[in-house]
């Protein structure tokens, strides 16, 4: 059975192009309607009850985030389609919500549609959108900001202030939390480097990212190590020493 999709963008050529791409390369999608603004989108949401929204963020008047804020429930998946916007994309990455950059690449479109299909099967997207709204509301308040961490069994929403450190293992990253719990996440550590940098996280080693609020001391017994509040010792690479001293104001 095909998934019903609603396309929302304030520019008609963008809608036409996306609809053509979906019809040609994503046969599992049935486009049930298009909308040029939030008010039209609300009407079509009520009429069609779509499974999937392709939603532009930057629109005059009310934007894509405003549309989601106006809804009480999310009975659909969302793929954001947007031009580059650092704040918006940062929020989407924190919430682990899917997005495509304009102009839309065919392979990325197909991959996003497939992920949306899997998320719909897991009934996971409601939580992702709810967390996106939380991220947007929290802004840059570290104590309130949450990041979505996808493990093999679930997606966890963890406050940034509860993360002590991250450790890389090939294409996986282990998160060490203040309550002693560890989470193995199916993404490499570099995916979280830029994401967490502005919240006080420091890349002290190729395989290690630490929250500087939990750094207790810099040890120099047998090489250089950071001693953290949970008792763990994290190595400092020679290449990261200068940057680390600046970050710790040493």
From TrEMBL:
Query: InterPro entries recorded for this chain?
Result: CheY-like_superfamily, LytR-like, LytTR_DNA-bd_dom, Sig_transdc_resp-reg_receiver
Domain HTH LytTR-type: start-end pairs? 158-250
Domain of life of the source: Bacteria
The UniProt entry, under PROSITE patterns, shows:
HTH_LYTTR, RESPONSE_REGULATORY
Residues that bear 4-aspartylphosphate: 56
Q: Which UniProt keywords apply?
A: Phosphoprotein
The residues covered by the Response regulatory domain are 4-117
Name of this protein: LytR/AlgR family response regulator transcription factor
Q: What is the lineage of its organism?
A: Bacteria, Pseudomonadati, Bacteroidota, Cytophagia, Cytophagales
């Amino acid at each position: 059975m095909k998934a019903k999709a609603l396309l929302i963008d304030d520019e008609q050529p963008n809608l036409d192009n996306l609809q053509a791409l979906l019809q040609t390369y994503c046969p599992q999608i049935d486009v049930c309607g298009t909308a040029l603004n939030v008010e039209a989108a609300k009407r079509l949401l009520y009429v069609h009850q779509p499974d999937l929204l392709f939603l532009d963020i930057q629109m005059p008047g009310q934007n894509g985030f405003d549309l989601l804020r106006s809804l009480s429930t999310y009975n659909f998946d969302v793929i954001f389609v947007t031009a580059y916007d650092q704040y918006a994309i940062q929020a989407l990455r924190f919430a682990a919500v899917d997005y495509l950059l304009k102009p839309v690449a065919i392979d990325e479109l197909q991959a996003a549609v497939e992920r949306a299909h899997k998320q719909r099967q897991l009934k996971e997207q409601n939580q992702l959108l709810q967390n996106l709204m939380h991220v947007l509301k929290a802004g840059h308040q570290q104590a309130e900001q949450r990041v979505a961490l996808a493990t093999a069994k679930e997606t966890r929403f963890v406050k940034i202030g509860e993360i002590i450190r991250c450790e890389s293992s090939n294409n996986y990253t282990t998160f060490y939390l203040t309550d002693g719990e560890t989470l193995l996440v199916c993404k490499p550590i570099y995916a979280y480097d830029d994401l967490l940098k502005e919240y006080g996280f420091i890349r002290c080693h190729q395989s290690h990212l630490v929250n500087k609020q939990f750094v207790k001391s810099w040890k120099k017994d047998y090489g250089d190590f950071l001693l953290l509040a949970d008792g763990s010792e994290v190595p400092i690479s020679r290449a990261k020493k200068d940057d680390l001293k600046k970050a710790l104001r040493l």
